[in-house]
């Protein structure tokens, strides 16, 4: 079983990013480089959702680069279509992995 990264939509994480009750896995997404539970500062609920969206926007703005130096991107890797993974409620895990994809047009204040 594989899992989606809620930040970048990478579909091949071998552990869920967050377990039930938003307990982080401390897994690292090789695509966007986020370590769940560390990079997010332990945020939960709305604050975590906001952080995920903001981090996704930053990753998009910085050119959607592959971050892992030890793991190579998949053949024919396409970060734009990968983001489409987040449009549907495909995440097998409850919590922040299931957020609908949308860009944060106005980042506003962190909740
Ligand atoms: Zn990611």
UniProtKB/TrEMBL annotation:
Biased composition (Polar residues): 67-85
Disordered as annotated region, ranges: 67-111
Biased composition annotated in UniProt, kind: Basic and acidic residues: 99-111
Protein name per Swiss-Prot or TrEMBL: Rubredoxin
Organism, as annotated: Arthrobacter bambusae
Taxonomic lineage of the native organism: Bacteria, Bacillati, Actinomycetota, Actinomycetes, Micrococcales
């Amino acid at each position: 079983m594989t899992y989606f990264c809620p930040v970048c939509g990478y579909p091949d994480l071998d552990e869920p990013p967050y377990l039930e009750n938003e307990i982080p896995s401390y897994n690292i997404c090789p695509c966007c480089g986020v370590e769940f539970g560390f990079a997010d500062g332990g945020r939960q609920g709305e604050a975590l959702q906001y952080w995920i969206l903001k981090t996704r926007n930053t990753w998009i703005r910085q050119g959607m680069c592959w971050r892992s130096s030890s793991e190579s991107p998949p053949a024919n890797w396409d970060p734009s279509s990968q983001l489409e993974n987040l449009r549907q409620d495909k995440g097998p895990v409850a919590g922040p992995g299931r957020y609908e994809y949308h860009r944060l047009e106005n980042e506003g204040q962190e909740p």
